[in-house]
């Protein structure tokens, strides 16, 4: 797999109304919908490409990703729809929705993350604050589905390939923000800040 090429496989979109922001990622995976659904809902498989998860993984149950977000499973309609609340620390809940659909011998995958974002945070980082994180997650999913090894999240940004992937992801989210109505200057500023956050310059 060409990891850098994975960036171009995803369509990114940004929508906003006041402080409510939505980032959306759409791509295809070369597997059947049942397999992709299992990869995204089985605790054992989630831990192999994303991060360890605990909890009651059924409708109405609560989950916790190790060292990350937790929430409640709000909708679960196998193998096409999963919707959860998404809570990080003491912050307000946001919502993540995943939709899947068979498309020939592939599966169309759509992830939508909606959140209320403080203006100062959005103005600084834009959609890449969560968008780059989701790109990294979907890269892990792609590697899992093709038998590749899980990305080392702690050190990926220290590798040349990792820095290039993060930089291109951040730029792609800057372009998505510009397409949503931001100026070139705004898109460039949030791209630089997001890139520096995920892949800080080596000391």
TrEMBL record:
The lineage of its organism: Bacteria, Bacillati, Actinomycetota, Actinomycetes, Streptosporangiales. Gene3D superfamilies: 3.30.530.20. This is SRPBCC domain-containing protein. Residues 31-135 form the Activator of Hsp90 ATPase homologue 1/2-like C-terminal domain. InterPro entries: ASHA1/2-like_C, START-like_dom_sf. Belongs to the AHA1 family. It holds the Pfam family AHSA1.
């Amino acid at each position: 797999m060409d990891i850098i090429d994975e960036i171009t496989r995803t369509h990114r979109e940004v929508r906003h109304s006041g402080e409510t922001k939505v980032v959306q990622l759409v791509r295809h995976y070369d597997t059947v919908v049942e397999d992709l659904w299992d990869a995204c809902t089985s605790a054992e498989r989630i831990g192999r490409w994303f991060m360890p998860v605990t909890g009651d993984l059924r409708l109405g149950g609560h989950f916790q990703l190790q060292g990350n977000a937790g929430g409640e499973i709000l909708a679960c309609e196998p193998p096409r729809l999963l919707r959860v609340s998404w809570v990080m620390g003491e912050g307000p809940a946001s919502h993540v929705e995943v939709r899947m659909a068979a498309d020939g011998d592939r599966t169309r995958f759509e992830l939508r993350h909606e959140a209320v974002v403080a203006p100062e945070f959005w103005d600084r980082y834009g959609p890449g604050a969560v968008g780059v994180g989701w790109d990294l997650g979907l890269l892990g999913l792609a590697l899992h589905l093709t038998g590749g090894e899980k990305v080392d999240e702690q050190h990926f940004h220290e590798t040349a390939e990792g820095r290039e992937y993060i930089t291109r992801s951040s730029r792609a989210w800057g372009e998505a923000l510009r397409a949503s109505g931001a100026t070139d200057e705004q898109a460039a500023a949030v791209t630089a800040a997001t890139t520096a956050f995920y892949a800080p310059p080596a000391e």
